[in-house]
Amino acid sequence: MTTPTFADAPARGSTLAPPRERPRLLRPRAMLITGVSAGLAHHLGWRVSVVRWLFVLTSLLWGAGVLLYLWLWAFVPLADASDSDSDASGAAPTRRAPAAWMLTALAVLALAITLISVWTPRGEVFSVSALARAAGGVVVVTGLALAAGLWATLLDGRDPARGPRHATAVRAVLTGVLVVLAVVVV
Q1: What is the pLDDT of residues 149-173, one digit of tens each?
Q2: What does each C-alpha distance from 136 to 44, 61, 148 come to in angstroms?
């Protein structure tokens, strides 16, 4: 006596659809910032907003979402410029969000928070806790300024919607931020 298998089951009345082939995991050339969420959503057949929320929620798990996002950004290739699914024309990717300016705004905000946190009224002694806050602020502001400058130079430099003038403006603002930071530290 043989045991019936899944393959022997009758197909009539079955509500399962035949499996469809998934599209390749590629980042689109027309993207919001990096195209990771849009590419993953297209590959899985999900809405982009669901994928973005999942990245945010998994980021609360000790940064797992951030690490996965960065890993996908590094290793998932861009779609071909000649691909019919691509919305962008030309070889360079285009970004809808000004990521370099967002990082610059965060650097300015971090500088303001650092200035407020280390400010001591007259007559007060500069404490060790204020020194620790200043050191943390220096690290955060410098990291954000570095990220914004690199983004403007390396990624937005090839973007046809931005270009060298954009990178120069971002670097000029960041230079001012770092000069103010240096004056505060000294």
Answers
A1: 999 998 887 787 787 888 999 999 9
A2: 40, 23, 18
